[in-house]
């Protein structure tokens, strides 16, 4: 695992709806106390678009419809950002882009906000939108207007990101116009997760990146 510092700007994010940036935290188990690493491992193996985290909170299910249950349940941040290298690229080449995950305590440090049910708390959602505007400028408005070339978080939907896949991203038309968000310094940590390789019908390792030690001021 490698930790690094980079200067980049945000050019895309996932989920496309900011109200889905916060999700219900997994229910604790009696086995959680056996290992301090269990929670972080599960956290990093998950992605913002996994099925357990994108449950429709407006559905008629008991958890979504019961206000008391919603208030008692713990919530956590889980979303991803597509970063573009702010350094000048080689002439004739597109700037390098990379998807990074922002979850749990790292997201709390970034946003200076506690996770909550954003669909039931419009004031918290408005505060989140205001903070993220400082991070990425008018990116949300451009995405809503289709200014990102029609890629609603396409990069964030990739399960594994390699150098080859990053170059393929650049051909998908994500945020083709120059991003208006200001470049910022952030810390990234690289880690590996098990990923099933369809061609080999076996399990391999996939690289992922997670933001940490970064805050919006």
| Radius of gyration based on Cα positions | 18 Å
Give the quaternary arrangement of the chains. single chain
What helical percentage do the residues reach? Answer: 25-40%
Shape: globular
Helix tally? 7
Order of helices and strands: EEHHHEEHHHHEE
Largest sheet: 6 strands, antiparallel
Indicate the structural class. alpha+beta
Low-confidence runs of at least 5 consecutive residues: 33-41, 50-65, 149-176
> What is the mean predicted local confidence, pLDDT?
74
User: How much of the polypeptide forms β-strand, as a percent range?
Assistant: 25-35%
Number of strands: 6
Query: What's the end-to-end separation, in Å?
Result: 28 Å
Layout of helices and strands, plus pairs?
Blueprint: E1 3-14, E2 22-24, H1 37-45, H2 62-65, H3 67-72, E3 75-85, E4 97-103, H4 104-111, H5 122-136, H6 139-144, H7 163-169, E5 184-197, E6 202-212
Antiparallel strand pairs: 1-3, 1-5, 2-3, 3-4, 5-6
Keywords:
217 residues, alpha+beta, six-stranded antiparallel beta sheet, 27% strand
Describe the structure.
- The two termini are 28 Å apart.
- The protein contains 7 helices and 6 strands.
- Strands 1, 2, 3, 4, 5 and 6 form a 6-stranded antiparallel beta sheet that branches.
- The longest helix is centred in the middle third of the chain and has 15 residues, at 122-136.
- The model is unreliable at 33-41, 50-65 and 149-176 (pLDDT under 50).
- It has 217 residues and is of the alpha+beta class.
- The radius of gyration is 18 Å and the shape is globular.
